[in-house]
Structure formats: structure tokens, C-alpha cells
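Last lecture ended with a question: if I hand you only a sequence, what can you say about the shape of the protein? Today we answer it with a concrete record. The protein is Secreted effector protein pipB2. Below, first the input exactly as provided, then the predicted structure, then a couple of comments.
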Amino acid sequence: MSNHLNLRTALARTARKRHLSEAENAAGDAAKAVDQSTVDRIAKLTGMARASWLGLLSFLAFIGITLLGVQDADFFIVERETDLPLVGVSVPTNLFFYVAPLFGALLYVHMHLYLVKLWKALDSLPRDNGSPAEEVIAPWIVSDMVLSRHPGAVHAYPMRTLARVVVFLSIFAFGPFVLAAFWWRSMPKHDELLTVVFCGLPLFVSVLAGVESWRALRRGGAEASHMSRGVAARWIAVLLALSMFGFLTTEGTLGAYAQVNRIRILGEELEFRSVYQRRHAAVVAELGKLDETQLRDRFAGTTDYPNENNLQYLAYRELKRRWWMKTWWPGLLRPAQLAGVSFVETPPDWRPRDEAEQLFRPKWCAGEDIPMLACGPGPLARDDVGEPLPEPEHQAYQRNLWCEELMGTDIPESACLQIFDDLNTRYVAAWKKARKDALAALPQRKLAKADLRRAVLAGARMNRVDLREARMEGAVLQRARMEGAVLALTRMEHADLRWARMEKADLSGAWMEEADLRWARMEGADLRWARMEGAEFWGARIMEALRGGAWITWANLREARMDATTDLTAADVTSAAVRSVDFTTVSLSQDQINGLFGDASVTLPEGIAWPKHWPTWVLPWDGAHAFDTEWRKWQADPQGYRPPPPPDPTED
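The predicted structure:
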């Protein structure tokens, strides 16, 4: 009986073991089936993510290499398009900057959407099956980086750290870096829409996508929670900071928006009074109620002696101080680097005005059948400081010989002189026409209303460029060639125009307060109604230029070159300084002279009395009675100022 019972017990135990074994085998088969489906899903996600990754890298490398070839001039010269490498296609630079960052951000986000899913799938792999997880999935260094966070998930292999760095840079950093380069490179154009919206927003989106993808990687398989208010607030702050910095480096003021007085909607142009126009009218009405003393007090330290007959300008100066008209941080404006750029294609034989005149002179003399020894350098020849060249010693003798050959030996000397005076008059007219025709033949570059604030244009060739109403405050225009350029109503306050060539330029209504015009060439320039308060004219050549109501109050006209063609009759020269200037043939009234400050180095026109506040001796450059010191004393108190007496010649 006992043996029978033991047998039944043993059989039952065997059956239970067999049942448990079958259950375990079934569970193992099920686990293997789950693992295989996960592996298949990882393989699909890896393929899609890898394709997106390679596509993104190719696109970023393509636009990055293209970006390296972009120059600031490409934003302003339409035909200087951006050449796309490999494909051999050229596109407008502005279009390239509008489109490329957008596509770059889209590809970057598209890749990270797949990667976030891949992070979660990789984290779900079992880690206790006795072999590294990397052996059962499709090989990819990105997957290896993710699995390396778990011990035993990948084999130890050389250069693991280098591989992780490469993966991090290519997956997370390369996209935002290239988009940041576009954002930064777009700033010299001073187009806030381009920088803030079309370059700044793609950059922000790429950074947001990269950070959130990194956070998903760090979470592993944990479900993502909704973004908290604190995190959302921080991202909004980043977006605002990015947008504000882009605005400050491209526009930096609300003044341009305040002056908008027309918009186009569905092809219809609507005009209205701008905010600036309404405020300006209100300030003019307010200033009209003030007397002269009140005006002086109100504008103390802001502008020169306020002219109660020019309230329009005073209102402008007052509004210019308002926060919404100021450029908040001028130093943040990214300057366009345009030094030496040729904005106009000139023919191979094109020469600067002086050189062209030197080449024209022999041809004209030959056409008149006059030997060069008799013809001479001509009435327009000047030395380096703008003084007429002296006649060569042989010229008078050669001219007499030529006159004798033409009209006989008994010709009076005065008749010969008259012949050459007439020839000089004809020559000047012929040269002006020839140069005018040459300028008219040049193509005209259209840069009206361009924003070139703080741009570096030193040595740029801008002959006949249309820059009307352009914004060029603080621009560096040293030695720039702007002969025949249209600069009407252009804003050039504080611009550096030293040695600039602006012969025959249209500067009517231009704003050049406190501009540096030392040694500038402005012969024949149109300066009607130009504002040049406080400008520096030391050594500038303004023959045939100043006329028609230009404002040059408080300007420094020391050693400025003028002649009979310089008409200052309608110009406001109040408080300007003159030194070493010859006014003998310049049209000036007694009141205008009385409004200037000068010394004995100035030669006045005949019939003009010596102003009482002018020293009767040549003031020194430095020392107790330096010219600048005395000028500022007179400006501070015109009524109470007394000129210093001449030094005692007996004193050492």
C-alpha cells in the first residue's frame, strides 16, 4: 500500500514539473516574440532616422559652404547672386537667406521626431538576456551612444568618447550652429524681418527641438510630461531675448515705424498721417508760443542758437530726443563691410575726375590746334590742397608765339590774353559737358532708402549711385567716390566723409549734422537746404557748391576752398568758424560775416567791415588764446565776448 502511494506521489510530481516546464517554455517563446517585434521597430526607426540625419548633414553642409562665400555687398548689389555649389545655380542672396534657414529648421525637427521615438524604443530592450543589446539591433553609432548609458548594453571598443562627441555635434549642435551663422550673417543688411523672423525663428525652433530631444534621451522610456509653466516661461524669455537682440542689431529704433504714412493692402495704397507727423505738428504749435529766451532755454545743449523762424527744424530736433525716435544702442548695429566695393560697373578707361581732366586737356588742345606748351595745364588744374597750379615759366612766351603765328607779330599782348581767356571759358564748358556725358553713360545703382547706418564704405566706388533718402548715419565714407551720386534727403549725421569725392553730387536736403567733411571734394555739388550744423569742413573744396539755403551753423570752415562760384548768399552760417579762407570773390553779406568767427588769416570781400568780435591777429593753434578756445568762448556768450588783443612783440 505504501509503495503504491509513493508511486502516485512521484507521478504527480513529474506531471507538475512537466507542466511548469511547458509554461516556462511558452513564456520564453512569448518573450522572444516581443523582443523580435521591438527589434524590428528599432530597425525601421533607425533607417528613417539615419536617412533624415544624412539628409540634414548634406543640406547643412551645402548651405554652410554657400554661406562662406556670401559677402555683405551681395545684399545690396542685385546681380551679385549667391552661387550654389555642386548644382551650378545662382540665386538672389536675399532669397537664399529667406529660404535656407527655414528648410534647415524643418529638416532638423523632422530628424529629431524620429530620434525621440528611437530613444524610447532602445530603452525598452531587455538588458538581462546575457548578451549586449547592440548585437540584436541594426548597427548605428547613434544607437550605440544611447545604449552606452546602460552597463553591458554595448561592447567596449576604442574611441568611444570620440564617437560620442561626433554624434553629439552632428545630431544636436551642427544644425543650430549653421542656423546661428545665418542669423548672425544676416544682420549687416539691417532688415529686421529677415533677421528676427526668417533667420531668428528657425534658430529658436532648432534649439528648442534639440533641447527637448536631449531631455527625452535622458528620460529613457519614461513618458514625457507636459511642459510646465516655468519651462514655457523660460523658452518665451529666450525667444524674446533672441528677437530683441536681432532687432537691436538691425533696426534699433521705432522711429522708422513712427514715420510710416502709407501702406499697401490688396494692391491699394492707403495714405494717412504718421505718428511722427502728428507729434511734429503738435510740437511746432507748442514752440510757436515761446519767445526767444524760452526757446534758448528749451534747446540748451541740444542744438545751436534756436532760430524762431525755423520751428519745423527745432521740432525735429526735439522729437529726435524722444525714446521712440532714438537709436537705443547705436553700437549694437552691425555695420556692413563694404570697403572698396564697386557699386557701379565702370568702363576700363574710367578715371577719377582729376585724372580724367588731365587726359582730356591734351585732346582738347589738340582739337583746337594749340601746342601743349602754349595750352598749359588749364584753368581747372589744382595741386594736392586744391590751389590752382601756377603757370609754367615758358607758357606766356609760348602763347605769344602761338598768337603771332595766328594773327601776326603786331598783335597786342592784351588781345592774346583775351584769346586764351575765351579759350579757357570754352574749355571749362567742354570739360563739364564731357564729364556729364561720361557720368550719364554709367549705369545707375538704385539704393534709395537703403539702410547703411555705420556701414564701412571707405574707398567704395559709388559714382552716380541713387542713395536718396538712404540712412547712412555714422557711416565711414573715407575716400569714397560718389561723383554724380544722388544723396538727396539722405541721413548722414556723424558720417566720416574725409577725402570723399562728391563732385556734382546731389546733396539737396541731406542731413549731415556733425559730419566730418575734412578735405572732401564737393565742387559743383547741390547743397540746397542741406543741414550741416557742426560739420567739419577743414580743407574741403566747395567751389560751385554752397547755395540755396544750406545750413552750416556751428560748422568748422577752416581752410575750406571757395571761389566766385561759391554762393553763400542764402546759406545760414551762424556760429561757424573760418580760418585761412579767402572770401574775396565769395558772395557774402555783412550779416553773414558778423555771424561767423574768424581771425586775421581770413580775407574778406571788398566792402565788408571787419566784425567786432574777430581778433585782428592770427590766433595760434594752441595755448591760452587758441583758435578753438576763442571760438567756443564766443559761441557761449556772443554778446559778452571780447577778442584777445594781439601779443606784445617785445615779449619773448
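Comments.
1. Residues 23-250 form one domain.
2. The two ends are 151 Å apart (CA to CA).
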